[in-house]
Amino acid sequence: MDIFAGLINGFSIALMGTNILFCFLGALIGTAIGVLPGLGPAATIALLLPLTYVIGSPVTAIIMMAGIYYGAMYGGSTTSILLNLPGEAASVVTCIDGYQMAKKGRAGAALGIAAIGSFIAGTVAVIGLTFFAPPLAEFALDFGPPEYFALTTLGLLLAVTLSGGSITKGLIILIVGLLLAMVGLDPISGKIRFTFGSIGLQGGFDFVTLAMGVFGLGEILYNLESTMKTELVTRKIGKIFPTLKDWADSKWAILRGSVIGFFIGIIPGGGSVISSLASYAIEKKYSKHPEEFGQGAIQGVAGPESANNAASSSSFIPLLTLGIPGNAAIAMIFAALMIQGITPGPFLVAEHPDLFWGVIASMYIGNAMLLVLNLPMVGLWVQMLRVPYGILAPVIVLFTTVGVYSVQNQVFDIYSMLFFAALGYGMRKLKFDPAPLPLAFVLGPMVERSLRQSLLISGGDLTIFVTRPISGTLIAIFVLLIVGQTTFFIKRKMRGKKTTAT
Amino acid sequence: MKKSERIVAIITSLGGVWIMYYGWHTLKLGSIHIPDAGLLPFLCGVGLAVLGVVWMLILQWAKEPTHEGPVEKRLWHRPLLSLVLMVLYGWAMESVGYITSTLIFVIAWQKIIEREKWLKTMIIALIGTFAMYALFVYLLKVPIPPEFFAR
Asked: A184: phi > 0 → left, psi -120 to 50 → alpha, else beta; which?
C-alpha cells in the first residue's frame, strides 16, 4: 500500500462516527489536563489506560490517547500565559514571554499565536510523520536481536541523558524500571524472579498499576504538599486573533519551531520539553531584538509552542516504526497498544494498516479540532482554572482506584498501585525524574530477550553487537554518548574547582 | 535534603549488592553461550551498586544549595495521611463494597486532608460517589465490589 492510498484508507477510518467522537474526546481531555497545572499528559493517559479495555477497538483507543497527548501540548500554554505556571512541562518557556504579554494586556494575542502556531506545527509534523514513518518501518524490517538490543539500550540512555536532570539519578531509575519489569516468570527459562513467595506477583506487575501509581497518584501526593496559591493575571483575554504585525513577527519562529520540534521529537528522550527550550534559545539568538525576550516578545511564545506540538506528533515515529517509545506519554500509548494485543514496531504498517494510517489521519483531524477548541473556547478553559484542587484530587483518586480494580477485579492491584504511588512521590521528593521508569519497564523485556537471543545466536560471541553494521553504528553512538557525557562532567568539575581556587 | 539523599544512595548501593547476590546465587547466571534468568538482574545489581557509590561521591563534592527568594512551605503530612486513607479505602472497598467505602473515603478526605465544612463535604461525597458509580457501572460496564448487605 503506497502512502497516498494508505492515507485515504486512514481518513476513511478516522472519519467514522465513533473515531471522530473519541478523537474529539481525546483533544478535549488533553486540552483540559494541559490547562490544569499538576497533571501531565503521561499521568492522564495512565489514568485512562483501563478505559482501553472497555473501548474495545484498538484504533479508537489509540486515536483518543494520541488526542490527549497532543491536546495537552495545546492546553499547556493557557496556564503559562495566564498564571505564569506551566500546565505541563513543555510549556515552561512559554511562561517567560507569555506571562509578560498577558501583564501588558495582550493575553489574547499570546493565546491566539500559541494556538495557531501549534496548529501549523502539528500539521507540519503529521505531514512529516506520514512520509517519514513508512520508509523507516521498511528499513527496520532488517533488524534482528542485536539491532534491537543496541537500539533499545541507546534509546534508554538517550532518554536519561536528554531529560535534563541528574544523569546518575536517571540511570538509577532506569535500572529500577528494568528490575520491576523482571518481576514474575522469566519468559525464556520459566524461573520465578523477585516474587518473594507472593502469588499475586507471579504474573509480574501490571503496567497500568505502575503508570497510574507513579504518574497519577504520585503526582497527586506531591501536589498535596504544596501550599502555593495561584492567581489569574487577567480575567480579560482580549482579541485572540493575532494582528498582521504579530503574524509578520512570528511566522519564521513558527516555521523554525516546527522543524526543530519535528527532528527533536524523533530522538528517544528528545520530546517536547527539549524542543521548546531549543526553539526559545534559537529565537533569542537570531532575533534582531534579543533584549525584548523576557519582556513579552511574541516570538518567545510562537516558537516554543510550535516546537512542542511538532515534537509531540513526531515522537510517534519511533513508536509506530521501531516499537520504541521515546518518552513517558508515548510509553503509555505503547502500553495501550500492548493491552489491545498489538505489538508496535516495523510490522505494524503491514499487519495493522488500519491502525497505523487511522491514527495518522486522526492527527490531521485532531489538530483542526484543537484549533477550534482553543481559539473560540479559550474563555471556558480559563473558567476551568477555578476548579479547586481539593475537589479534583479525590475525584482522581476515585477514578484511579476503581479504574485499576476494574482491570483484573482484584484488590491486590490497588495495593500495587499504592506502592507505586509512594515510589513516585518519593522520587519527586528526591528530585528524580520519573520519566525513564515507564520506558525501562516497557522496554525491559525487549532488552533482555534481545540480549539473550543475540548471545544464543552468536554462541556467546559478544562481537555480534559491533560487527553488524546497524547495531555497530548504534553501539558506537552509545559509546560516544557515554564518553562525551563523562568528559563534559569532568571538565565542568575541573572548571568549578579552578573558579573556587581563584 | 543531602542527608536523606545520602541514606537513599547507601540503600541503592546495598540493594544493588543484594540483587547481584540474588541473580548469581538464586537465579543463576548461566554461561555466556546460554545465559540464564539471573544474568540481567546481576548486571542491574552491579549498575545500582556502582551508581549508589557515584551518587554518594557527587553528594560529597556538591555544595549545599543556597535558597534565594521565598521558599514555599510544604506540608508533608498531607500526602502521608492521604496514602493511609487510600490503603484503608482499598481494604474497605473489598470488605464493605464500593458505595459505602467511597462515601466514607470522600468524607474522610474532605474533612482530614482538605478541612472542608460539613455541608460542602457531604455534597462532594454524594455527587462524587454516585457520579463515579454511574460512570463505571452504567457507562463503562465495569464490575465493582458489591455492597456487603447485598451479598
From this structure: left
